[in-house]
Amino acid sequence: MMLVRHAMAVRPVTASPDMNAEDAAGLMAANDIGVVPVTEGDRLVGLVTDRDLILRVIAERKDPSSVRLGDIATTRGIETVSPDTQLCDARALMAERSIRRLPVVKDGRLVGMLSLGDVALGSASMRGVGETLAAISASASTEEVNPGPDIGTPNRVKAHREAS
Prior knowledge:
By secondary structure, this protein is α+β, with helices and mostly antiparallel strands.
């Protein structure tokens, strides 16, 4: 049985609510990450993603050095998992809620981060990871613009080969 603790990144890079958006972008670039947990001590109070920086700072033409993370961090509805959660359950939560990264919390303290990549590396089911990624990435707007190819079946593939 694979647990979140076996796959998560430990000692995640964090920021305080008083740091600014420029600091968060620098942390993301320096550490090749797409999310910075916002903490007070070791208590998770929010998350700032690269998307948050684009939509809440850059798109609104705000000065990144003057925008506090506490003002742009997502603070409500943050899903978390315990280090003792089964990895398959975390993967299911990620698919259900369209989440690419999950904070790992124990006794109210942030102890790690679990990304979809971590799940892929720690998972025995690559098919399950692929299905999770498809569920997370799917949106009505993308499917309308790019419906993608028909899903092949053995009979369809065989008929195509015979016709060629």
